[in-house]
Amino acid sequence: MNLQLLSSKIKEGKTSLGIELGSTRIKAVLITDDFQTIATGTYDWENELNNDVWTYSLNEAWKGIQSCYAQIAADIQSKFHISLTEIGVVGVSAMMHGYLPFSKEGKLLVPFRTWRNNITEKAASQLTSLFEFNIPQRWSIAHLYQAILNDEKHVYDIDYLTTLAGYIHWKLSGKKVIGIGDASGMFPLNGSAGEYSISCLKEFNNLKAVKKYSWKINDILPKIIKAGMPAGKLTSNGARLLDSSGILHSGSVMAPPEGDAGTGMVATNSVREKTGNISVGTSAFSMIVLDAPLQRVHQDIDVVTTPDGIDVAMVHTNNCTSDINSWMNIFKEFANRLGINITNNELYEKAFLQTTRADSDAGGLISYGYLSGENITRMPAGRPLIVRRPESKLTFANFMLVHLYSAFAPLKIGMDILINEENVKMQALIAQGGLFKTPVIAQQVLADALNTPITIMKSAEEGGPWGMAVLGAFVLFNLNNNLKKNLADFLDQNVFVNPETMTLTPEEEGVEGYKKFIKEYKNGLIIETAAIKSL
Q1: What is the pLDDT of residues 169-210, one digit of tens each?
Q2: Where is the Carbohydrate kinase FGGY N-terminal domain (predicted)?
Q3: Which of 9, 313, 344, 535 has the smallest C-beta neighbourhood within 10 Å, fewest atoms?
Q4: What pTM did the predictor assign?
């Protein structure tokens, strides 16, 4: 598309801004109404362990958002010589789940408790039994009930409970709403009705420990809105929060705020029944869209929804790439000590390519990349370990391969439940995340680990922020065309018309090697347990 036409689209507000607050990076993507990316902005941030609770500063969140927006505005000015004053639609997504309780005055009552915390085991277990529905530890309702069981004083003052995406949306629009996919990680939903489960709301309110509070759970949760529906407008205060220069106009339509799992599904066109995607980063999760209910409740399987409310089986692991990144930092330090300047992309590429020389079982090495606790393997805390027998083959190739094997191990354990016990069928499984920037290597490892073909989609490189921008464009599409097209059809017919993809199938040697590894990995979990108790 020529610059003049793009410039006209920008001036006329035929654009969609997607902002996503991920676990290690905040990113914003501005696209046109035909889904082209015209500008991006990024900001690195990191969680911190504060009083044994994983958290992020909300001030840092706003600093990151403003930095991302400023980069986009500067890029537009540089490329098109125009100021960014109009945006058609704005959408926010963020790490799912967690705990953000606010008072009537809008004060955050305790620091943000993220998905990474494994501190709600008692609450999650009791609620799972009460609801007869799996409540993972990271869900908002588990955090709330654990705070109640702990008799935390702030619970008396709660007026509003939301997620990180819901909080940012509230401040930009003034609306206490949430997208249905993000809502499904807060509290059980009532099937396709698009609302919280009435029976679960009643059961929770009737709990003896809950009755002493003046609020009801249904009064403090955000209102649910499905994809494609408007969720308010950008206020003047919200515009200033985005654009510290003050030139952005208010009035942009706001898309329903979503979780990063939902935007990943959109970015990989995996919202139709029997499709699925895997997203890897600090954490990892798979999302398989169901065509029938699961046969029973599984502690390791969440039932959440697509952004338009279709049930999804989700396997979520708290750990994935963090330990790999830590080792890469050491290798880079050593390279710098030798006087070798190497970029991160070059470092990862050279290290990953070395795995082609590894033994298929990683030489008998075992790695546990647990920077934090891991729900799948019942670990309450993290103690990153690499373990070997004297006869194990400690080579650089095996060392790198075992860390890739380990990154996918908890996900493998959860996916085996879906495939082997629930007999869930998938027509496609698309992967996204930074590990796949180095072509083939991590993709092939994942295909071998799950013993299923893995597809990488070029459009997924921008990830969740682009997916959020597309969800924003879906709102404008429905408004402008007076339509109520479903999300799957919109993506197939309007967005992913000619997608560029690459699929790798499992290799027999890799499959057998991973089977040996995962058997040793499971047998060695007692070592991780001992490390947690001892250190």
Answers
A1: 999 999 999 999 999 999 999 876 789 999 999 999 999 999
A2: 17-240
A3: 535
A4: 0.87
